[in-house]
């Protein structure tokens, strides 16, 4: 029974319709959650004992960093699904994830550097988390670079799928090797936010932002995946029907 | 035409012999990465204050970065030429396990780029004042590290072999994946030169190399097959 | 019993629908001749038959079994000669043949010499391939073909760069292969001069 659902999900017209219907269900909650999180974090939460107001950037930095990793996993998983079951939809999802993930990574890096300036005194301190983010950015850029340099879409899909799978398996290894490397000279870790030690007034807006970012990612992914499918299947018949239905407002 | 089918071992032997013979015939191409390694590692001290103490600190880093870059240089040739003249296709169609054959080619790459480094490393270490007891440690680190570099690099070479000759994409693909080798390898070498126990990074490096050897054959075969389409 | 069948092969290359429902059947002792203009997809079809390119739809069966089920066994009986010779320019003709044989089956040294003599490149045995003419290199490739055998021959424009005697040699080799019960699939511009009973034709648009 689950297989039937799985294969229907993999059919482009079905996915297209589903994505079109679901997008508002993720987009609006994303906006609301982020708004609530920002108000909670920027306005309502009290200033930190040590870092005063500077810590507030964590409300953007932490969700961005978390999402940069999650998007890579989604990208690699959908690429693997595409490789094994030869599904266009899976490849379209994987391709759509790449730029989104790279942007989250860049955002995490930028906010991390902005956070570092008042805390460390410099913009860059080879902190293990930021260094890992930087390497993750390189992995994304490699994926995008490989995709762009292969003309044939099918081959680009398959080659970048192999790369994504190799990358996702290596990400934890790279991350832990960087932590190990950094632990050799006890540099002060900056983003010290352990869950237990954070009061609820700080933690709740953070979780709201995290949920908001995730919903935003899903909404953005659905929109991009639809565009990607349109581009790939533009000669197929279902496109004309789907767009015709959209024009009459029936999708 | 008669005779029984050839097994994988004999075929890989023939493949390795062929590739080594080709490398010998094109000795210029083969020696270039080595020359590049020597130039790069020689540049570091020139850019720094020539005090021996500082050089000793920098040396492991310079060695490993040089090894990484020269390995990249040799990678581009690994599959590209065979892909262009149809020899790689014949390899894919000969009915023997493709993973094994590609690993044989990777082994040749290691013999031509990694092995020289393994041989040079003790000499370089002695020049930097390393105690003789450190030699086994340094040798192991360089051996494991260059093996891992060859394996990871081969996957990158397989993915880019059918693209226009563009070293920077290959570097972008391989370097992030090679970071653990750099971190553990340089650390192990530095500890060895300082005469301190280097079990920790060495074991981690060994684990990473074993892991690469497990993942690389699949990724390599998949990448090359896609490139041959 | 040697037989190659292809059923409703569909393949896209990027945007192009290159193979549209191609079907064919060739039995032992027969040669399938594939003709078509430039860019019609002959090379793509041949490589798909070898299992090098994945198909969107369709089946290829060798001896009644889908080749996807045991690709290695299929390849063990397959001998492919592509546009490129599949030989290394920096090895001599003799070294190339020795290596090609070493990948497949154990052959005594005199078989290599015989194959080279048969294809008329015996004098060039000790020369690097890059010093030979295109026609001579093609002959060495034909020597490799004859040497390594296989029940199924897939040849992509085997006659390119060959002179008249080369073409005769090619036909002799194919004939001998068919006589021994083998199957041949040949993409070619000009029609093969084989007896009609042994020839099947497929034209690609």
Description:
Chain A has 251 residues and is mainly α. Chain A has one domain (23-44, 52-236). Chain A has helices at residues 2-9, 12-44, 58-85, 88-120, 128-149, 153-183, 200-232, 237-247. The radius of gyration of chain A is 20 Å and the shape is globular. Chain B is an all-alpha fold. Chain B is 84% helix and 0% strand. The longest helix of chain B has 33 residues, at 52-84. Helix content of chain C is 33%, strand content 28%. Chain C is of the alpha/beta class and 205 residues long. The longest helix of chain C has 16 residues, at 164-179. Chain C starts with a strand and ends with a strand. Chain C contains 6 helices and 9 strands, in the order E-E-E-H-E-E-H-E-H-H-H-E-H-E-E. Classes of the chains: A mainly alpha (251), B mainly alpha (229), C alpha/beta (205). The B-C interface holds B 1-6, 10-11, 13-15, 18, 21-22, 25-26, 84-87, 89-97, 225, 228-229 and C 47, 50, 52-54, 72-78, 80, 82-91, 95, 99-100, 102-108, 111, 115, 146-149.
What key attributes describe this structure?
A: 251 residues; mainly alpha; 8 helices; 0% strand; C: 205 residues; 4-stranded antiparallel β-sheet; 9 strands
Q: Span between N and C termini of chain B?
A: 30 Å
Mean of pLDDT of chain A: 85
Structurally, the number of domains of chain A stands at: 1
Average pLDDT score of chain B: 88
What would you call the shape of chain A? globular
Tally of extended strands of chain A? 0
Q: Report the largest inter-chain contact.
A: B-C, 32 and 39 residues
- How many β strands of chain B by DSSP? 0
Order of helix and strand elements from N to C terminus of chain B: HHHHHHHH
Structure summary:
With 251 residues, chain A is mainly alpha-helical. Chain A has helices at residues 2-9, 12-44, 58-85, 88-120, 128-149, 153-183, 200-232, 237-247. Chain A has one domain (23-44, 52-236).
Note the topology.
The complex is a heterotrimer of chains A (251), B (229) and C (205).
Chain A: H1 2-9, H2 12-44, H3 58-85, H4 88-120, H5 128-149, H6 153-183, H7 200-232, H8 237-247
Helix pairs in contact in A: 2-7, 3-4, 3-6, 3-7, 4-5, 4-7, 5-6
Chain B: H1 8-25, H2 27-47, H3 52-84, H4 87-92, H5 98-127, H6 135-160, H7 167-194, H8 199-228
Chain C: E1 3-13, E2 16-27, E3 31-36, H1 42-50, E4 57-62, E5 65-66, H2 71-77, E6 78-81, H3 93-102, H4 109-118, H5 134-148, E7 152-156, H6 164-179, E8 183-187, E9 199-204
Parallel strand pairs in C: 3-8, 3-9, 6-7, 7-8
Antiparallel strand pairs in C: 1-2, 1-4, 4-5
Helix pairs in contact in C: 3-5, 4-5
């Amino acid at each position: 029974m689950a297989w039937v659902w799985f294969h229907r999900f993999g059919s482009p017209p079905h996915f297209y319709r589903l994505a079109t219907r679901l997008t508002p269900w993720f987009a609006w909650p994303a906006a609301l959650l982020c708004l609530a999180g920002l108000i909670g974090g920027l306005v309502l939460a009290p200033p930190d004992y040590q870092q005063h107001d500077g810590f507030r950037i964590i409300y953007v930095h932490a969700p961005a960093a978390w999402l940069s990793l999650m998007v890579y996993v989604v990208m690699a998983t959908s690429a693997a699904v595409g490789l094994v079951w030869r599904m266009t939809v899976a490849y379209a999802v994987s391709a759509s994830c790449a730029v989104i993930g790279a942007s989250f990574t860049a955002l995490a890096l930028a906010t991390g550097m902005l956070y570092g300036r008042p805390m460390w005194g410099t913009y860059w301190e080879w902190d293990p988390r930021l260094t890992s983010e930087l390497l993750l950015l390189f992995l994304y850029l490699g994926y995008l670079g490989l995709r762009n340099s292969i003309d044939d879409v099918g081959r680009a899909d398959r080659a970048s799928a192999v790369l994504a799978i190799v990358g996702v398996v290596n990400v934890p290894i790279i991350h832990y090797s960087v932590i190990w490397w950094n632990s050799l000279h006890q540099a002060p870790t900056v983003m010290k936010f352990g869950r237990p030690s954070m009061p609820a007034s700080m933690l709740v807006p953070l979780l709201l932002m995290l949920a908001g970012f995730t919903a935003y990612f899903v909404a953005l992914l659905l929109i991009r995946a639809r565009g990607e499918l349109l581009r790939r299947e533009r000669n197929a018949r279902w496109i004309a029907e789907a767009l015709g239905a959209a024009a009459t407002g029936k999708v | 035409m008669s005779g029984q089918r050839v097994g994988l071992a004999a075929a890989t032997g023939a493949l390795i012999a062929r590739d080594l013979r080709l490398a010998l015939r094109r000795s210029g191409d083969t020696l270039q990465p080595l020359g590049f390694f020597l130039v790069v590692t020689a540049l570091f001290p020139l850019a720094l204050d020539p005090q021996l103490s500082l050089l000793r600190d920098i040396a492991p880093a310079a060695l490993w970065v040089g090894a990484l870059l020269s390995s990249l240089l040799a990678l581009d040739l690994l599959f590209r030429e065979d892909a262009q003249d149809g020899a790689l296709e014949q390899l894919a169609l000969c009915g023997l396990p493709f993973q094994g054959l590609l690993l044989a080619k990777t082994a040749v790459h290691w013999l031509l780029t990694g092995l020289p480094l393994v041989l040079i490393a003790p000499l370089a270490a002695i020049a930097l004042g390393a105690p003789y007891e450190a030699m086994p440690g340094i040798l192991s680190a360089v051996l494991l590290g260059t093996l891992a570099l060859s394996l990871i690099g081969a996957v990158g070479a397989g993915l880019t072999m059918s693209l226009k000759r563009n070293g920077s994409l290959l570097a972008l693909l391989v370097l992030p994946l090679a970071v653990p080798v750099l971190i553990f390898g340089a650390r192990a070498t530095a500890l060895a030169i300082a005469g301190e126990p280097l079990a920790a990074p060495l074991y981690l490096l060994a684990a990473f190399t074993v892991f690469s050897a497990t993942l690389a054959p699949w990724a390599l075969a998949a990448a090359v097959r896609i490139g041959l389409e | 019993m040697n037989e190659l069948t292809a059923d409703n092969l569909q393949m896209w290359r990027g945007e192009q629908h290159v193979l549209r429902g191609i079907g064919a059947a060739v039995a032992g002792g027969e040669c399938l001749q594939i003709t078509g203009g430039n860019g019609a997809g002959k090379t793509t079809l041949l490589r798909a038959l070898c299992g090098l390119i994945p198909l969107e739809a369709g089946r290829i069966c060798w001896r009644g079994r889908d080749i996807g089920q045991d690709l290695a066994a299929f390849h063990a009986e397959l001998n492919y000669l592509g546009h490129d010779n599949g030989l290394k320019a920096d090895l001599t003709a003799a070294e190339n043949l020795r290596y090609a044989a070493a990948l497949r089956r154990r052959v005594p040294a005199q078989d290599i010499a015989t194959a080279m003599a048969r294809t008329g490149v015996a004098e060039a045995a000790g020369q690097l391939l890059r010093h030979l003419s295109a026609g001579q290199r093609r002959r060495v490739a034909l020597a490799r073909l004859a040497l390594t055998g296989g029940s199924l021959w897939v040849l992509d424009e085997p006659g390119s760069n060959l002179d008249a005697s080369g073409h005769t040699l090619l036909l002799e080799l194919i004939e001998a292969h068919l006589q021994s019960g083998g199957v041949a699939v040949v993409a070619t511009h000009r029609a093969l001069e084989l007896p009609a009973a042994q020839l099947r034709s497929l034209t690609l648009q």
